Amino acid sequence: MANTYTQHFFHVVFAVRNRESLIIDDFKEDLYRYISGIISNKKQSLFIINGIPDHIHLLINCKPDVNLSNLVQEIKEHSSKFINEKRILKGKFYWQPGFGSFTVSKKDVAMIINYIKSQQEHHKRFNFKEEYLGLLKENEIDFKEEYLFDFNLQ
Asked: What is the pLDDT of residues 102-128, one digit of tens each?
């Protein structure tokens, strides 16, 4: 639409099913490139992707006509298929259902990029449960415990 100007930044987080540590160094960069390709093919902009073996973070700038839930579903569906077809792991790879998404102001983009970039350091101090609950609370998102990722796993 003419004369329409937007910026929609989303910090997206999702986990491996059962929070298994399956995103190993052997294929992590290939997985990140593949996910980047999915986002690019959907004409959206990926600023950064990073994570640790049991979950990943993305910062995406989306056009106003994109349905974020559909985009994340497509990322998860196709990246799972990519991993499974390559037979990188013993057994099947699945993402856990659901995701977290947090809007980001343009003035905070650099801060979020640094946060995502420093995931390995961050998780020396905080586990995924502490991080995720912190993000939900910081963003004042109401949630029900039964719909959170399964954090009872060790």
From this structure: 999 999 999 999 999 999 887 888 888
Q: What is the helix (H) or strand (E) element at residue 50, kind and residue range?
A: strand 45-52
Alpha-carbon gap, residue 119 to 115, rounded angstroms? 7
Give the alpha-carbon dihedral of 28, 81, 58, 89, to 10 degrees. Answer: -30
Distances (CA, A) of 6 to 26, 111, 132: 38, 20, 28
pTM: 0.88
Structure-token match 């640790």, residue found: 52
Tokens of 111: 């801060």
Helix, strand, coil percentages, rounded to 5, for the chain? 45, 20, 35
**Cβ contact 31:22 at 8 Å:** no
